[in-house]
Amino acid sequence: MKGSRAEEKIMSGCAISGILNRKGNRFSGEEIIDSIALMHERSNGLGGGFAAYGIYPEFKEQYAIHMFYDDLDAKEEVEYFLNRHFNIAVAEKIPTREVDKISNPPIIWRYFAMPNEQKLSEFGLADDEYVAQSVMNINANYRGAFVVSSGKNMGVFKGVGYPEDIGDFYKLEEYEAYLWTAHGRFPTNTPGWWGGAHPFTLLDWSIVHNGEISSYGANKRYLEMFGYKCTMQTDTEAITYLFDLMLRKHKLSLESAVKAVAAPLWSEIERMEPKEKKIATAIRTIYGNALLNGPFSIILGHKDGFLALNDRIKLRPLVVAEDEERTYVASEESAIREICSEPEKVWTPRGGEPVIGLLEGREEVWA
Amino acid sequence: MGLDYNIPEFIIERDQDRCIDCQVCQHQCANQVHAYDQDLEKMVAQDIDCVNCHRCVTLCPTNALIIRENPSEYKKNKNWTGNMIENIQKQAATGGILLTGMGNPTAKKIYWDHILLNASQVTNPSIDPLREPMELKTFLGRKPDQIEFDDNGELKDLPPQLELDIPIMFGAMSFGSISINACKSLAKAASDLGLMYNTGEGGLHQDLYQYGQRTIVQVASGRFGVHNEYLNAGAAVEIKVGQGAKPGIGGHLPGEKVGAEVSKTRMIPKGSDALSPAPHHDIYSIEDLRQLIYALKEATDYKKPVSVKIAAVHNVAAIASGIASAGADIIAIDGYRGGTGAAPTMIRDNVGIPVELALAAVDDRLRQEGLRKNVSLVVSGSIRNSADIVKAVALGADAVYIASAALISLGCHMCQKCYTGKCNWGIATQRPELVKRLNPEVGAQRVKNLITGWSHEIKEILGGMGINALESLRGNRLMLRGIDLTEKELEILGIKHAGK
Q1: Structural domain contains residue B204
Q2: CB B214 within 8 A of CB B197
């Protein structure tokens, strides 16, 4: 058994960590594993995972689709779908090694693919929207199959286990990325489902998340009106889709999206300059159901960098540090010091205050 | 007509040891129940005329009065209850329609009482509203799908919105059905609290124009008091199609209530009956409704949101969806427990459906059609306390209308005799000697106290859920669980049973 999807919302606590090389220099997965491993006590072995950006330079124009399959039937069915809808350049098993503490993995496969031109024009969709709809279709309608990630030149590696064991299992020391994020999970119930580990993704977006979103029921039903299907019963999936909606579909600036998910208090808005006040009021009026309520700290990964964010009254920990080339973010400062003992700057962002780490020269290129 | 077969509904017990013959009860009772008998040298009472409004009980300086239901019992019969028998006696005596006031009092299931709320434990900290911000601000009006900027990067203006500091508004009650002092109390309370009140179909008395920014002006089938200045005096316009207490029928303000002020405000002759037709005679279809919505938008220069109020009836979801696509900015749904100044008893107690089910169905339908994010949803009929409001918002409402609760805060004791015009509390009456009993300053303060209390309670409940802004509760049915409900009821409400 590979475990099954939860029927009800899963609650979990967690550890998160991220490292960005702002110059775009790539580095192996060893450091992120060391960082997340230091926070071993914050997870309970029921989920760990990593997102890595820049790992597939040889296929950087292709969508890298990482898949979990429960069995060969599921794989066959999804591949039939993929073959009809995509031109697949490479289909291969994602390399893993035997690790004592990791058991019962699903079938783990990846595809480098482009949307089928004919289908694309038939549906009249942009590439990204076509891929996003395909991903949601597979996740909602193909039993025993799960899209782990679907961005370009990036991939997610996750599963049931402590994060350091998951990193070992996927041989992450062999990958080089300019941005790594990691997650160790502490769910309060025990669905041992590989797909339920973090990061959650859609296209280039990946989210690692520590916390519980009390507004999930409102967020989920809001997203459904825009065609998103929240099938995994987790907050994190909904957060991913909210950012996809606002940043990709609605073309909001990152700053505006933050004003929706971690909205400034009305009392703060009152004190803003008229123009800023008008925008903040409009965002809260229109995107009220996108507000994320409850304790959270998240790292939103993207090809251009990351956004780290706390809930607006800071109910979960989040620490940031910088050195010459890199920006670090983690649940605990110790997880940063473990891999960068003398950062130039260390700080604790306030609740709702976004920390944006960008590759040099890419200030305006989100989404 | 011979013998009146009816017996008194209430028995007045007067403790003669306590009674000091001060005659306060006599002066206070517009129903002329109490009188001083010169021969007997004591106070006596006509039980049959008592409506049990508690005015005399409350004001008796020696607590000498107790009013009880008449303990006389009919022979036990589950089918022919005393109430059924008495109704027939009344109609046999008069040949009229059974008339009543306020909302449906029958023992049908109240769904609010079968819904339980969630609270945080361990995985998610609850929030203390006395220490942390807790936001109830709500905007009603049409929202675009997404925020938009023009070519110069300037934010495009949103359609007009009503800004509420608390998601509560005072539901439509006309000047005529209630007194000017009751209107003033509500209007002042709404202004002071940052809420809205609704004129009902009674026009807008000159004294109330000062509260325009907190006023929703109603346009109903009689079009009483509707003119350009009226439409533009309020912050929003509401087309009343139906009312929960009497779906499908019109209204009737008897001529005796149409004094000089009501006459002037409604623009009808003094002493004439104000009859609101059952339908709007310019709305026989959804496309007609669209025309009226846009006529009102034109008249108000697209500066005010237009609401459409309907009664919760069987196919309310489809109707609401039609209203949303007809261009309404706000949809108000009034459930079958909603109050009224006067309604035929049979209609009030048998027509329409519970607002809880209607709300869930409408919210679901609007979401399926992708319209809910654009249009606002307000419910009423009946909201009795702050927990009902929290449940309504979690089921999907943006805000609620309260009316009966607001009147109770002004002194109403739910005797359900509003239609007689003899309200001893100065609320549902136009008789000057009764109206003056309600001091609008005091009334406004009592309403404000009620809403302030409720808002504290809402904040406590939200904080317990780990939520610090109302928008995170809106439509968040995961915060609700059902108890003693069937699978079908749970399915319609879109909630799980307690324990699941």
Answers
A1: yes
A2: yes
**Cβ pair B105, B46 in contact under 8 A:** no
Give the pLDDT of residue A366: 54
Contacts of A285 in chain B (CB under 8 A): 139, 143, 158, 161
* Same-domain check for residues B79 and B135: no
pLDDT digits (tens, 9 = 90+) for B74-110: 999 999 999 999 999 999 999 999 999 999 999 999 9
Q: Are residues B90 and B175 in the same domain?
A: no
Q: What is the pLDDT of residues A232-249, one digit of tens each?
A: 777 888 998 999 999 989
Q: Is the distance from CB of B223 to CB of B177 less than 8 angstroms?
A: no
Residues of A with CB under 8 A from a CB of B: 8-9, 11-13, 188, 211-212, 214-218, 221-222, 224-226, 249-250, 252, 256, 263, 265-267, 275, 278-279, 282-289, 291-295, 312-313, 315
Task: Indicate whether B92 and B120 sit together in one domain.
Answer: no
CATH code (residue A193): 3.60.20.10
Query: B137: domain CATH number?
Result: 3.20.20.70
B68 and B165 both lie in a single domain: no
Overall number of domains in chain A: 1
CA A127, A131, A137, A142 torsion: positive or negative? positive
Is residue B4 predicted with pLDDT exceeding 90?
A: no
Give exposure, B4-17, as e/b (b: 16+ Cβ within 10 Å). Answer: eeeebbbbbebeee
How far from B206 is each of A162, B240, B263, B435, CA to CA, in Å? 72, 22, 13, 17
Please tell me chain A's helix, strand, coil percentages from 3-state DSSP, rounded to the nearest 5. Answer: 35, 30, 40
Mark whether B149 and B27 lie in a shared domain. Answer: no
Q: Can you give the length of chain B in residues?
A: 500
Q: Who's near B317: CB < 8 A, 6+ residues apart?
A: B358, B361, B362, B364, B365
Cβ of B77: how many Cβ atoms within 10 Å?
10
Looking at the domain assignment, is residue B205 inside a domain? yes
* Domain encompassing residue B59: 10-96
Cβ B370–A217 below 8 Å, yes or no? no
Q: Is B475 on the interface with A (CB under 8 A)?
A: yes
Q: What are phi and psi of A92, to 5 degrees?
A: -155, 160
The partner residues of B170 in beta bridges, in order of sequence, read: B197, B402
- Say if CB B234 and CB B212 are below 8 A apart: yes
- Give catalytic residue positions of A: 14
Parent domain of A237 = 12-358
Please give the Cα distance from A243 to A232 (Å, whole number). Answer: 17
Do residues B199 and B174 touch, judged by C-beta distance below 8 A?
Answer: yes
CB contact (8 A) between residue A293 and residue B472? yes
